[in-house]
Amino acid sequence: MGTTILVILSLVATTTVGQTPKPATLSSPGKVLMYPMTLGQNSHIVNFVRLAKILRSRGYDVHLLFGTDAGSWNELDQTFNVVHRYPSANASDIESLNWSIMSAYQFVTWLADKLERQCEALLSHPDLLVDIQRERYDLLIADFIDNCGRIVSDYLDIPTIIYSAPGFIGDAALFPILPTFIPVSPMSTLESGNMTFAERVENVIEYIATVVLWYPRWFGAFQSLREKYQMNSSLNIRKSFLRTLVLVRGDFVLDYPRPVMPNVVTIEGVFSEDPKPLPHDIATFVDGAGSDGIIVVCFGTMIGQLDKRRSEMYARVLAKFPHRVVWRVTGKRPASLGNNTLAVDWLPQNDLLRHASTRLFVSHCGLSSTMEAAHNAIPVVAMPICTDGFQNALKLTRAGMAFSLDFKTLTEDSLESAIWEVLNDPRYKRNASRVAALLNDTLVPPRDKFLYYVGYVIRHGGVPHWQADVLQTMNIWQLLSFDIAALVLIVIITTLFVAGGILCLGVIAILKYCSEQKPAFKEHAQ
């Protein structure tokens, strides 16, 4: 019997020697619902489609929830196993916005109104939400910008990941905003760390106005919808995302230094992929550019058409260059379009920026455009138009790879001069190459990082252990120790007041004493 056991053990040892242990699986496939902001065919949906493709490549069952005003994309139906569509509230009239005169406040007010209407369109169809709940999803990936995701997350009561496509922007409860050195508004032209005293005063005032005046509007409307449709109405909308994992598309190579909470993870570079062949018409046009190369012009997914005056101005300026130009223009083509310019309704932006012939990118500096230019070492003529474009343009300019222009005061001469400046000065390309080298030098491939955290949240049922309780119990004044500073100031003032009072009483007593002694002195002198 003993001999038999020894023989068996020796056979087992023989068969296992030399075998390499199987690596541990980083993530387990699960059932994922993705809920992007729906305002027409916008860049947020494009981002979510890209993330969905990454998840599907690892076996995840990925479903989509979005409004019908985003249209019917074949790519959506091909990317997602199930698409839940709710009737939109006709909220995607972004083409009607006049960017040349719209202020930052007007835009965010417009955005808040549209998102509120879209949310009510979803909540007014409870049968759809009931059907979604029956699907028993393992994870919800919601859009940070759309507060309706907070309501859906609480309703489904499942682990949630928040994806912030514009980077570190918005809610101070997730990304602590320290107005002493971090610009409060994404539309601000203030630069972190380089603000003068007057600019810091301006920034603090803007922060106070945001908290006191804007946050009640931004969150209050969705809290009212939550109560109206009885969707966990006892919960506070501001605190709905505090137990979630927040994936931020950002990188501190370009982003300003700032504190982040344990549940905040950056995943910039997650969309970096091998370039795909260009569509035939664009490829033929680009290949004919010769040594001059091409200029890519695009103002993002949501801004396909500028006002007529600006469109004609751009067309006239671009026609003056020996380079070929690929320009995304929807609707009617400008009459001044040059023979060197190819106007297209859609362009494969990242593939074009990776092309060896690309010399320059003229951009509104949305985060996707900003990071694609940076990863591909393409110099930029930056013309921020809305939202985070202003801060992104500032970051590229600070890195020395962009020349910024004011979209509202832009002239034909300034546009032409800026393009020639960036094309002819080698410093822009050199700095762009330096930034690209830093961004692309990562310890872990961003895709693997994204997949790991998706699996982590599913495996552990969320990340409540990373919750930053301090953000629920302390306000910004307490975080900055202003209350302690006020106490110290009060103690100092009180001490000085008491000491001053004692000193005054002492002086009065001495003067009184001296005045009482003077007559006796005079009498003695006589």
From TrEMBL:
Pfam families named among the record's database cross-references: UDPGT
Superkingdom in the source lineage: Eukaryota
Annotated signal peptide: 1-18
SUPFAM superfamilies listed in its UniProt record: UDP-Glycosyltransferase/glycogen phosphorylase
Keyword Transferase assigned: yes
Residues spanning the membrane: 484-511
Molecular function terms from GO: UDP-glycosyltransferase activity
Keyword presence, Transmembrane helix: yes
InterPro entries: UDP-glycosyltransferase, UDP_glucos_trans
Entry keywords, A to Z: Glycosyltransferase, Membrane, Signal, Transferase, Transmembrane, Transmembrane helix
PANTHER family in alphabetical order: EG:EG0003.4 PROTEIN-RELATED, FI06409P-RELATED
Record family assignment: Belongs to the UDP-glycosyltransferase family.
Descriptive protein name: UDP-glucuronosyltransferase
